[in-house]
Design goal:
Length: 573
């Protein structure tokens, strides 16, 4: 309530000066030097009114574009909120971002994760898909707003003013934050020339109600569906906080305050109903489908290889047998069926692409005749990945993290599907000779560093973070102690990887046999369950952690996870 009141004052009083991060947005500076005023006055419009204090400048403009004095050739960074609740919501957002970048003046730098959220203000409408992005642009704020409105119009949003406010919309883009100038020196005195000023991240503060543009966005601090994605960007960026230039708080601080206030409101509600339904992170899939991380997702393993380490090629000879196993895993609780046509057990030889295609395509096509269960294709080869997606698969699962085939990342990016990036050194034949993580570069830090390098490479290739899942590669280029350390340190890995979605695949692996003495992989399901439960244990400070468990015995692990998570959520009364 206090935060909303502050922003209300902003909207009603043009002469109010905030004790905020310093920003430069205008042309008149009553308290700074004549030289500075003269440099800025070149582009000043006669009806612009700017208000300055020692710590911030608030801009108010009754007519024309107050921000056109920003050099169009100079690159600025901005944060945008993105959302949709009509039609194929993810495709709407993807199309909007693609259109926004089409003329070269706006470049997408990074994305948050995506969440499905209940509508605010007008609640009788479908849930929204929401996220946030960081962009770099040469456009000043009003031109950026104009570009956004053009994209919204092109994608079918009614901007006539006759549509219901806060009602359904195919796409919704809002400017949240925008870079601005600091107008004082490090000693706190006014800079003599504009050229001496430093461009400050997210520092622009401006008020332009006649053009419906206020920066920072006046309601962002009351919206979890904005603050949670912004915290994603804060955690996944360069390590620096993203600070609100008026409220002087990071995105994490604002989000924690909002969650606390919402919890207090719910506790004081007489009818006991949950007034603020939780937002759930999602992984978009083809054909408008989504994986929702409201619980741990179980990925069932279906190897159609003759030399699988666990099932000995049980499902490689008959498509109908493989289909029956896939449907049985789906019935047992699998949210994904992972199909692989090349064994990646330690020491395995590579399989030719044509042979891999011969193995995997018939079962993908057969499953699609019977079920719409999400399918991941376990492959290191771009040709196989593309053919599998065309046959009906949804996700590419690459044990090499995109390092085996130089075309893989670009191919996945062009298809616009999610990708699981696993950590591995070498290849299946050589990886167990590459388990030497040094004292200064231990297995936890080594895996984090190398995984994040693959994530950034995928992002640079055009696979946004909201389409990425990371896998620490249990059993791949790790010895027994390394595998145990990775599972015990799962929360540390997740925390140091910006709370990315994680897949853990300890199922029936050799380290369980070493610990238990069990030589038959098919008899290691009890050890598998223990490893799975430890890997999804979550620190309280990590919100909405997203987990996928890749296992052979789907039903057993699903039951164990459901019980474990119910215990974790139970109240100690």
């Amino acid at each position: 309530t206090v935060l909303i009141a502050i922003m209300t004052i902003l909207a009603s009083s043009a002469a109010f000066a905030f004790p905020a991060r310093r920003a430069f947005v205008g042309c008149r500076y009553p308290s700074i030097s004549t030289a500075t005023r003269a440099r800025c006055a070149v582009n000043c419009k006669p009806r612009h009114r700017f208000y300055h204090s020692s710590t911030s400048l608030l801009v108010h403009n009754d007519s024309n574009n107050a921000a056109n004095n920003i050099d169009n050739e100079e690159k600025r960074k901005a944060y945008l909120a993105v959302g949709s609740n009509m039609g194929d919501t993810y495709q709407n957002i993807a199309n909007a971002l693609s259109s926004l970048q089409s003329n070269g003046s706006i470049k997408l730098l990074q994305t948050s994760f995506l969440r499905t959220t209940a509508p605010m203000y007008v609640t009788d409408q479908p849930n929204f898909l929401n996220g946030a992005v960081q962009v770099e642009t040469s456009l000043p704020p009003f031109e950026l707003l104009s570009a956004i409105k053009q994209v919204e119009n092109d994608l079918g949003r009614d901007l006539s003013g006759n549509s219901q406010r806060y009602g359904p919309r195919p796409v919704d883009l809002d400017i949240l934050l925008y870079d601005g100038y600091d107008v004082t020196t490090s000693e706190g005195t006014a800079a003599e020339t504009i050229g001496e000023n430093d461009l400050q991240p997210n520092a622009l503060v401006m008020h332009q109600p006649s053009e419906k543009l206020i920066i920072p966005h006046p309601r962002m601090q009351e919206r979890e569906f904005v603050l949670a994605p912004m915290m994603d960007l804060e955690m996944g960026g360069d390590g620096n906080e993203i600070n609100h230039p008026v409220l002087n708080k990071s995105m994490k601080e604002l989000l924690m305050m909002l969650i606390k206030n919402n919890a207090q409101d719910c506790n004081s509600d007489d009818d006991g109903e949950e007034e603020y339904p939780p937002a759930h992170r999602v992984l978009p899939l083809p054909r408008g489908r989504m994986l929702v991380f409201n619980e741990t997702i179980i990925q069932g393993i279906l190897n159609v290889t003759p030399d699988s380490f666990s099932d000995g090629g049980k499902f490689s000879k008959s498509v109908e047998d493989a289909l029956a196993q896939a449907l049985q895993m789906e019935k047992g609780g699998a949210g994904i069926i992972d199909i692989g046509g090349e064994s990646t057990r330690p020491g395995a030889e590579a399989v030719g692409i044509e042979e891999e295609l011969r193995r995997v395509l018939p079962i993908i096509e057969r499953i699609r005749e019977e079920s719409d269960v999400p399918i991941s294709i376990d492959t290191r080869n771009a040709r196989v990945a593309q053919a599998a997606i065309e046959a009906g698969a949804d996700i590419v699962n690459d044990v090499s993290g995109g390092t085996h085939d130089p075309e893989m990342l670009a191919s996945v990016a062009s298809m616009g599907v999610p990708m699981i990036l696993m950590h591995m050194r070498g290849n299946p034949k050589t990886m167990q000779a590459l388990t030497n993580y040094t004292k200064n570069d231990g297995v936890l830090s080594g895996v984090v560093m190398e995984l994040m390098a693959r994530s950034k490479a995928a992002e640079a290739a055009g696979i946004p973070r909201w389409l990425q899942v990371l896998d620490p590669g249990i059993g791949f280029a790790k010895d027994v102690d390394g595998n145990l350390s990775l599972i015990k340190g799962a929360g540390v890995i997740r925390d140091n990887c910006g709370n990315m979605p994680f897949l853990f695949g300890p199922s029936r692996k050799g380290f369980i046999g070493k610990v238990t003495g069990e030589t038959d992989p098919a008899e290691r399901d009890f050890g598998t369950i223990a490893a799975c439960l430890v890997s999804i244990e979550n620190k309280e400070e990590i919100r909405d952690a997203c987990n996928i468990l890749r296992v052979h015995n789907v039903k057993a692990v699903k039951q164990a996870v459901l019980t474990y998570e119910a215990i974790q959520k139970a109240k100690m009364e």
